[in-house]
Amino acid sequence: MALLYKSDPARGAEWAKILAEKAPDLSFRIWPEIGDPNEIRYFFAWMPPDDLESRFPNLELLISAGAGVDHLDLSKLPPDLPVVRMVEPGIVDSMVEFVSMAVLSLHRDLIDYVAQQRAEVWKQIRVRPAATRRVGVLGLGMLGEASCRMLTNFGFQVAGWSRSRRAIEGVTSFAGVEELPAFLARTDILVCLLPLTDETRGMLDAKLFAQLPHGARLVNTGRGAHLDQDALLAALDSGQISAAVLDVVTPEPLTPGHPLWSHPRVLMTPHVASMTQPETAIDVVLENLRRHQAGEPLIGLVDRKRGY
Q: pTM for this structure?
């Protein structure tokens, strides 16, 4: 029985070291050194090969290296193969840190101050109390809920939207397509933490931006494909959206000369909002292996019909 790893090689070396201590009886292999493919029972990967079923005939579990599975073509995977998302504290903690940083930077006008520094301008902007700023989080899964809870600690008026209603202390809940307009209308800073599905692809578009208050601000830490980038540029130029923090774009990286690279109202980071941390991820993986062997419910099991 072996676990095959196919992701960042440097982190794979960390996995090998930690697993040697925590699970010395588990055969751990790093792609492309797969050994006997018949021995592979578990596969931890960001992008598995297309011929998964024929190459690893005894594979019992596929573990996504990220919190989402939109990078996987679920239709090409063996239909009976369980797929689990990476649900681990390191991903949650780093996303909460990034969302907090992004929201606070927009709330405290950091983009304006960066521009002023470059222009050698010393000008104060009136500080607005957090209690007067309305933050809305699209997506109330594990990452969205944790981000909402942290944002309430700063005093923001926090609301969340999801397909089905969620109860989070201190957070106003909106649910379903029919409640989306009301959610958008009360949102000064919009944070996207949605899973990427056919329903959410391109959701951040001109129609959605028009339903936000004029001058609203945007944080996208979901996926680049959530965002209509041309619509964002038009909204920024008209002032409907006054500033944006983007951790994800399409493609990654953007083509040279793309307007988002140099737009004065955009802060962009290279898809670093959250990362799997080997120290904590390994414990979750080992627990899922134990659960699988015991026939118990798996952590982060993907519903293929929903796509997450």
A: 0.91
